[in-house]
Amino acid sequence: MSRAENQSTPGLGYDAVLLASFGGPEGQEDVIPFLRNVTAGRGIPDERLEEVATHYRANGGVSPINEQNRDLLAALEAEIAGREWSLPLYWGNRNWDPYIPDALQQMYDDGHRRVLMLVTSAYAGYSSCCQYREDIDKGLEATGLGEQLEIVKIPQFFHDRAFITPFQEALATGITDVRAQLAAQGESEAQPKIVFVTHSIPTAIAEAQGPEHVKEEFGTDAYSAQHLAVARTLMETVPEAAGLEHSLVFQSRSGAPSTPWLEPDINDAIEEYAEQGTRGVVVMPIGFVSDHMEVKWDLDTEAKETAGELGLAFHRAPTPGIHAAFVSGLVDIVARQLEGAAPQQQANQKVPGTWDDICCVTGCRPRLTARSAAPRREESRTGPSGA
Ligand SMILES: CC1=C(CCC(=O)O)c2cc3nc(cc4[nH]c(cc5[nH]c(cc1n2)c(C)c5CCC(=O)O)c(CCC(=O)O)c4C)C(CCC(=O)O)=C3C
Ligand SMILES: [Fe+2]
Question: Which has the closest alpha carbon to 110: 79, 73, 148?
């Protein structure tokens, strides 16, 4: 990159972007070590690990997530190059190679000191936000770079045009497809039910998440509220969805059976809808940014089978992946952050509401907080739509 190009990069002194993700195994021999990384110290029962291992084993021991992140990196790089910015991208995972500490070391060795972190998770929550910050802290400690390298996490982006646009398109396509399936079965009178789905989390963790004004408005925890708001926005902005019923359900529960997690499970929900007369479902995986293993297994395998056994028409919508609007929208988010815009309530907010960058309230204990994504948990709510 030439000097001239470098000068066109908008900026407040960030000199690289770290794409931070979950990571996944890339062969049979990786599966168990990967699962041990994921669950270290969190009491997931062995039977659950064995069960999850079979999901990966059935796919050659390979999670699709790493390839999807390579594709996303390439797409983001192309978009950034197209804007003639000089802003190198790096990639680090929480649970598999390339690991976060190696990425931190590499960025430092390459001369970078202030880095924006873009996480492949759109919502607030322990697993989607805090755990990334904690792992950055651990990585800074492990590499001894805590004083030299500053990592600033880009806030949740579930409400941004980048994330919403691909799902609007996907919802319209899904409805059209299920209607066509129903018509082919001679059931053109039947209407599809829209089933929004996300990852279940322990109820106690969900309920501990603030802020109160979100709980009051939606009558539920912030994690569920953010998903409900996305679902509502999609239903209201996609013409094909007019008049259809929708719900928010959960998938991929783990942990001990005695611990309550958010419900209903998608399979139970589909059974109930069938009993109530639903003839077809459009499954919208709004909890995820790519079609990784949890999408492929829990939805394309299990939920699809459940629907099939009950004779329901079924369509699983794609996640944003490398949809052009997602890629360019993410780079817009990066640009606003580079320009120092308020991280929440931004220009391209498509989901109405005041969504403080809450990350999560409990369990979010990065030790080097000040140097890694100082949480913007201000009491006052600011920004264009924060009245
Ligand atoms: C909210 C959330 C997201 C969405 C946000 C985001 O997208 O980040 C997410 C994503 C993902 N979760 C993934 C995989 C796993 N999650 C597990 C376990 C857990 N997830 C949890 C929550 C979440 N998880 C929780 C509360 C647990 C149990 C306790 C714990 O361990 O903290 C386990 C252990 C075995 C099991 O019990 O399932 C595995 C293997 C993969 C990779 C898929 C691939 O390989 O393609 C991805 C993207
Ligand atoms: Fe998970």
Answer: 148
Give the pLDDT of residue 359.
79
CA–CA separation, 124 vs 359, rounded Å? 5
Task: Determine the distance separating the centroid of ligand 1 and the alpha carbon of 150, expressed in angstroms.
Answer: 27
In this predicted model, which residue has the larger pLDDT, 100 or 378? 100
Check pLDDT > 60 for residue 356.
yes
Best mutation site among 252, 265, 296, 364 for ligand 1 pocket (most ligand atoms within 8 Å of CB): 252
Closest residue to atom 36 of ligand 1, CA basis: 254
The complex's ipTM? 0.95
204-221, pLDDT tens digit by residue? Answer: 888 877 677 888 888 888
| Ligand 1 atom with least separation from CA of 39 | 31
Does the domain spanning 161-316 belong to CATH 3.40.50.280?
no
Q: Does the structure show a pLDDT above 50 at 6?
A: no
10 pLDDT band, cuts 50/70/90, is: low
Which CATH number among 1.10.760.10, 3.30.465.10, 3.30.460.10, 3.40.50.1400 corresponds to the domain 3-157+322-371? 3.40.50.1400
Domain locations along the chain: 3-157+322-371, 161-316
Q: Do domains 3-157+322-371 and 161-316 have the same CATH topology?
A: yes
3-state secondary structure of 83: coil
Contacts of 196 (CB under 8 A, 6+ apart): 227, 230, 231, 234, 246, 247, 248, 249, 284, 286
Residues forming the annotated binding site?
A: 63, 132, 199, 294
